[in-house]
Every structure is written in structure tokens, then in C-alpha cells.
Design brief:
Elements lengths: L2 H17 L2 H4 L12 H19 L3 H10 L12 H20 L4 H9 L12 H18 L2 H4 L12
Helix pairs in contact: 1-4, 3-4, 3-7, 4-6, 4-7, 5-6, 6-7
Length: 162
């Protein structure tokens, strides 16, 4: 098995049970950046955060889970202005992630609540938060430039059946 397939299998082992929950799957209802759904974006962030953590010897499980759950706000984001959404959705995502998982680590909690830093109220305090923030910014840039679809992010993120 080549390294990419091996990493993909490890990553899917880490988030597979969360990916199958109705709560996480419901993120597929809402558009997020460009033509992507919140679910597609979160899967992309999860994989990139996992890879960042692995490359630095950090907790890959926490990074993958935080990346997947960072936008688990579960409401139509159009109800808020852009500025309000930047501040409100990390709190909603953390609340929903706690309900869903019940056992988030402090690093996962900090990554979810601080992922909009520096626009959010909470600062990153852990390396997992830094990995999640970097992954989120990278993925958002790729999506905003419409490179996610155009380049078939297979280079960056494996295909996942939604």
C-alpha cells in the first residue's frame, strides 16, 4: 500500500464513525464556500489537519476530529451577517460537537472554538488548534479560488463518499 493510501486509511479509521452520524452528514445541506457544502469543506479540513499533525508528530486523532467538527454549527448561515457568523458559529459548533461526541479533548475543544482566529473571540492554545486553523485557512483559500474542484483535490484530500 502506498503512503497516500495508508494515510487515507488511517484518517478514515479516525473519523469514519463520526462521518456516518446524521449530525455530520446534515452539514451536506448547506453551501459553504463556492459550490462546496459545509460537509465537503469539513472533510477537506479534517484531512489536511490530520496531515499537518502527522508531519509534526502531534495528535492526529484530535486534529482529524477537530477538523471535521469545526463547522458543525447545524443551521443556515444566511441568518447571520458575515461578521456575526464568524463569531457565532464556533460556539454553536463546539456545543454541537460536545453533544455528538460527549468526550472531546481540551485540544479538540480549543481547536473548534478558536478556528476563526484572529476574527474569533478565542485564541488557539494548542498545536491541534494551530493545525486546524492552518488547515481551515488553506482549504478556504483553495475553495475560494475554485481550485478545490478544478484540480480535483485528490492531491490534497482523498475522495470520500458522502
Amino acid at each position: 500500500m502506498n503512503d497516500t493510501k495508508h494515510l487515507t486509511a488511517l484518517w478514515l479509521d479516525t473519523i469514519g464513525s463520526l462521518l456516518d452520524t446524521p449530525e455530520v452528514r446534515s452539514m451536506g445541506k448547506w453551501r459553504h464556500h463556492c459550490a462546496l457544502t459545509c460537509l465537503e469543506h469539513s472533510v477537506f479540513v479534517s484531512y489536511i489537519a490530520f496531515r499537518i499533525a502527522r508531519n509534526h508528530g502531534w495528535d492526529t486523532r484530535a486534529a482529524a476530529r477537530a477538523g471535521l467538527l469545526h463547522d458543525l454549527y447545524l443551521y443556515d448561515p444566511k441568518i447571520y451577517t458575515s461578521k456575526e457568523q464568524c463569531r457565532n458559529h464556533p460556539r454553536a459548533a463546539l456545543r454541537n460537537a460536545r453533544k455528538l461526541c460527549g468526550n472531546l479533548t481540551p485540544a479538540e475543544e480549543n481547536a473548534i472554538i478558536s478556528h476563526m482566529w484572529p476574527m474569533a473571540d478565542e485564541r488557539p492554545k494548542t498545536n491541534i488548534a494551530v493545525a486546524t486553523i492552518l488547515a481551515d485557512k488553506f482549504c478556504t483559500a483553495m475553495e475560494a479560488l475554485c481550485l478545490f474542484r478544478a484540480r480535483r483535490v485528490a492531491r490534497f484530500c482523498p475522495a470520500v463518499q458522502y
